[in-house]
Amino acid sequence: MNYMERGQFEGSRMKDVEMVHSDFRPESYLRDLGVNVSELEGKRVLDIGGIPQGEVAMTAKATGAEFFTVNPGIDYRDYTKPEAAVHTTGLVQELPFADESFDMELAHGSVPWYLPKVESEYRAMFSEMLRTVK
Asked: What is the distance between the alpha carbons of residues 55 and 52, in angstroms, rounded to a whole number?
């Protein structure tokens, strides 16, 4: 069996999804994605798998970015800092945003952890990301 099977996903997308997020140090997060902090300034940014109280969200807020996070499951009990981002619970394959909502979208290691290893789910992810970015 291949790592990523062809065909349609027939399961429940939310089945077995727990809190999946990335909260790397902003320097490494942005460096790994090839983004300078200054590029966030004044932008509308979606962090897929990010957390609204995370260091990346705090860094983006300090630049004046309008920062959003989307995550299939967030447990706020572990986070006591105020939110720096607008958070939405959701899946990358079904982004709950209008077309061309964001100037930039980021995802660092979070998506592969919960995305079913089926080609159609990856196609859905990329389709949604392309639909929601300007």
From this structure: 9
Q: Does pLDDT of 49 surpass 80? A: yes
For residue 21, pLDDT over 80 is answered with: no
Q: How many CB atoms lie within 10 A of CB 6?
A: 8
Query: Does this model's pTM top 0.85?
Result: no
State the burial class of residue 123 (Cβ atoms within 10 Å of its Cβ: 0-12, 13-18, 19+): exposed
Query: Among residues 34, 102, 27, 31, which one has the least CA distance to residue 58?
Result: 27
Give the dihedral of Cα atoms 21, 27, 85, 74; nearest 10 deg.
10
For residues 106 and 133, the answer to whether their CB atoms sit within 8 Å is no
